[in-house]
Amino acid sequence: MEAVKKLREDWRYPTTLLCIYGFFSTVKPLEPFLIPYLTGPDKNLTTEQVNNQIFPVWTYSYLSVLVPVFLLTDWLRYKPVVVFQCVSLFVTTAMLRWMYSVPAMQAMQFFYGVVTASEVAYFSYIYSMVDLKRYRKATSYSRSVQLLGYTVGSVLGQLLVSFDLMSYDNIVVFTLVLTAIALFTSCLLPMPQQSMFFHRKHTGQKTTTEGAEGHVDGTGDATEHPSGSKVSEERLRVEDAEARGEMEDEAGTGLDEKGLKVEDLGESVGTNTCGKVLCQLWRDFRQCYSSRQLLYWSVWWAMATCGYNQTVNYVQVLWEHVQPSQNFSIYNGGVEAVSNLFGAATAYGIGFTEVRWEQWGELALGGFSGLGSAALFLMTFTGNIWVCYISYVVFKGLYMLLITIAMFQIAADLTMERYALIFGANSFGALALQTIITSVVVDSRGLGLGIIPQFTIYASYFSFIAVVFSLRGLFTIWTARRRNKDSMAPEKTEPPDSVEHKF
User: Fold this and answer.
1) CB-neighbour burial class of residue 266 (10 A; exposed 0-12, middle 13-18, buried 19+)
2) Most buried among 125, 164, 296, 450, by the most CB within 10 A?
């Protein structure tokens, strides 16, 4: 029993369970072949019904539940929402298998919107269970295992379809089994004792440690008093935690590594009221977006993510239009796998570049967005499915590259709580824009355009982003160079005998 208790207190235990959950919940072999499945003999739906009536429901559902789920995730301390997400995913998959009508498929899309909105619990859970010095490692594990799950699902689906090893219906049943494994794993996750906003550590409160008495500095310190928070203090705290982590034994003892006894943890966590949390979030929101540079990066994030989501959601409809699956051996799964790996490679490679993104970043956003727009135009007007596939891989890789830069620039000077707030606000902004575009362009109650006019609009949308941020980037570079010239001018006018005073 003592060994089991020690295992459950180790930071690796919740991290491993979360990674197992993340993997099995993202292995979806049918997802690259969803359009052929819905429009084929299994469901007998038309492309117009799928495109203009069924798919738009996901966007509306996602927007309607995003904010409540965001707050409930923190209030319920993550694990219940993780379990709820997996239950919703199971219901979604079951409805996809055994329902046939348009209203039933719309209900299925509603539940899938709930699944997507609940994903915030997956990424937030681990930060309440591991020590500050483990954040980077735990984040790397949880994010990379999701990418692995998507890639394995795409490759597996391609193999099953290409070699005719399973029918589409049987692939859905196989996905249900994988989801059931994820659901069982989610139930084994330990329940966190704290959260970022509603159940926070009281900063500066004295607690009993194993060796001596000291102060507990929670990560919420910077958001508790926004007017007095200092980025340098947060960075020093992170560096100090990492330095301590290097000297400690790697085995660790989970919650005990934080210097708290398990029985004393409840005394250091307090519950904030909803009104207090909302007021604090609003103050942090205003203070964060008062930074003009952060605002510009966030605007690009919201606009580009909106266009990216629309493209990814409807690209299978475009592929079906260019090359009907009844007449051609489709390779949607292989393309999705390659695009995921290419996107991961570009995101990974950007970490090794030495670029002053605060000066050149906006121009990069504009230039690469222009390349993404060109790829979308090529996808739209080509009649060759392979050109369409390659253009999609390029477009997805460029987006992954740029969103990585944007996330790094925004997160560089923010605490964990404020980054979560900005991430949620930018995602909500992207989803609001996406809802407007969907209701006007895609929905049958709006214009209900066909897939070619839709992608023409998406490509033009990215062209607009490219022009705006290219101009802004050029202005930023011109301003920086002019400032450098102005700062160098007084040095040139100084007499030669004044050089000695500089020393």
Assistant:
1) exposed
2) 125
